[in-house]
Amino acid sequence: MNYRTKQFFVSGFHLFTWPFAQPASLLHKWLGSEALFDFSAKLFSLVPGKIGQFLRASFYMQTLSRCHADLAIAFGSFFSHPTARVGRSVTIGSYSIVGTADLGDLVQIASRVSVLSGRHQHGSSRNRLDYESVRYSRVSVGAGCWIGEGAIVMASLGANCVVGAGAVVTKSFEDNAVLVGNPACSLPKREE
After folding, report:
1. What is the pLDDT at residue 86?
2. CA angle 59, 63, 45 (to 5 degrees)
3. Are the beta carbons of 153 and 160 closer than 8 angstroms?
């Protein structure tokens, strides 16, 4: 099925799910509360099946900075900040969390993946958490990236990167990197 045909069918399904996401979306926009966005995102993450997938996509189309209609976001997964931007044909597996991020076109995220809002989400000073020094930074995941099961991404990735299962990305990588380990390092490129 080509992209335009798929987009037509997906848009039709959104006509049914859009009204359910509308009240939460309007309240979030009117009150400007990120707490309300967070509550709604987590609530919609618990709706099972295809209906839940379309409901989540409808909600994010109305609330995120940018989100395409063909977002496929599985059960238990959610965006934690409305500042995220999502490209075309993005797929997110179950129980994944995406923070302040830019997801390029055709990004595929497996289950239990965390794309954090940078490396400094939890500030600290001597012997205690310091909530005043928390800094969110935007993480970019380039077009065509695949992020494996249970990976944690704290830094930007170029296009067409592969992040192995369980890898922890703590620094940025260029296009076409294959990343494994904790902290993630790039495998040497094979000569063809």
Report:
1. 97
2. 40
3. no
